[in-house]
TrEMBL record:
Ranges where the record places region Disordered: 1-24
Keywords for this protein: ANK repeat, Repeat
Stored PROSITE patterns: ANK_REP_REGION, ANK_REPEAT
Name under which the protein is recorded: Uncharacterized protein
Amino acid sequence: MAEKEDDPFFSDEEEEEEVIDPNTLGGDLYTAIEKNQTEVAVEFLQMGVPVDYLPEPSDENNNKASAWSMLHWAAYYGNIEVTENLLASGAGDIYKGEKMSEKIKRQAGRGGDGVSSIFVDTPLHKAASKGHLRCVWLLLQAGYSVDDTDLVGNTPLHLAAAGGHRDVVQCLCDHAADAGKRNNFKNTPINLCTDPAVRGLLKVAAGKGSLSEEAREEIMQKHLDQLADLEESITSVDMDSPSSVDIDSLVEMIERGASLGVSEEALTMGNAFVTELRLVRKLEAQVADLKANSPVVTQTLFCKYVNALKDTIGEVEALIKSQTGSDPEGGPSAPQGDDPLSAAVSLATELCQTAHSEYWLCVATNGVKNITRAGEEHVKMMGRLSESITTASMNEADEGLLVEARKVLGRLTAELEVGRAKEGFPDVKLPVDTEEMSAKEIKEYWLEEDPEKPVNTGHIEETRDWPKPPEDTGEYIWVPSVSYNNFSAAFSRLTAALEAAKSSEGNEELIEEGSKIALERGADMELLEGKNQEDKKTAITAAEKLAKKLGKKGKKKK
């Protein structure tokens, strides 16, 4: 203390690091084991906390719990790790030790009747009653007797038989447990047993004599080997061939492994396999159902098969995310289809996409197929149908649905085009009877009144050889008038639209209207074609004259 006072760097506000005495933590260790908190208990045991702690009586009757040792609780829960650590720390010897004798005397001096149950109701009774085979083995190896009785005269074999714990019964019988011993109520283990298989074991055991220590060791080793084989079988499931795995058999092995004390790691792995296999089978079954009922064309079927499959895909993606820590839709750990689960998800997702596109293709088709005459008011609906066809085609949808949808869209598109083409003819000047017109009047008729309107007269394209024709072809390049080109394009558009409408069985009334207009405009087209040819002939004649004239001038200069 004087050193602290003399130390100028020591502050009264500072506290020394508290050193915990392990001997004071017995109650904490007991509580951790009582609550089956494995990690906490093991940590305390590794710190060297004594294992001989017993709690004070919790009430005047000194209830049962206060008489349970740490080893009782570990055996009751079947906690192999804690049981092993307790036995390694000497918990199996405390009843013979001097400390426990003194503690019992102190407890007994306070009138604690329940203390005697420490001796008669052993940890082996707890493990046997719950069917914890591994703990039973550990306690037998630690020297616990198969013939100890509890307060009502039950041996561990009585309790194991009453619980129907076949493996524990077999183990106790192999260690020469007395199958004919009667409890305080005159019942033998066979009297308490309801499982026929266990009764058979007990009857066989009743007719046998006791085994030698060597024989017991041999049987124990055999059990340990079987346990190791069982654990290997659970953890070595061939997940690359899930169809070859019998899920029910795997579940049975896991349940048996849990009762025999297979490691938690192996059980966790086995249960993960079962979960994955069941999801794969569920996916496979739902995929088969969807295929059998495809194409899905009603909302009822869509909800029943497609939505159900989507929900299962969501379950699988959640499982994959929990296993990999990443979103299945992306990321470095996302499934790439290399394992059966990912492959099943990929197949199911593709099928859902196909079914989804087929359903909405039907919805879009049904929404427009009863339209008798397509118009501008139907353009948006037709656009949705077109998009649905594109998506369905990409997803390899049912060909029959695609054929029907394309047929409906083709008819509507043709009808819409006929309607547009009817109204799409430009205003142009048509040739008129010029017999009573003067040359000036004719010229003025074809003059452009509005410079923004299409030119009504064609012309020859002037090349570098002008006024001669291009040297490579020897023919003038004729450019029809803009008005002629526009009218010709409109006429061709209407003609093509009518052909498409007829071939797609479009609206007959519309086709008749369009055909009438095409007939009228066809006559106009003939007039414009005649004028175009006349203009071409006139322009070529003028160009040839000019070329000839320029040729003569060239000769004179020479």
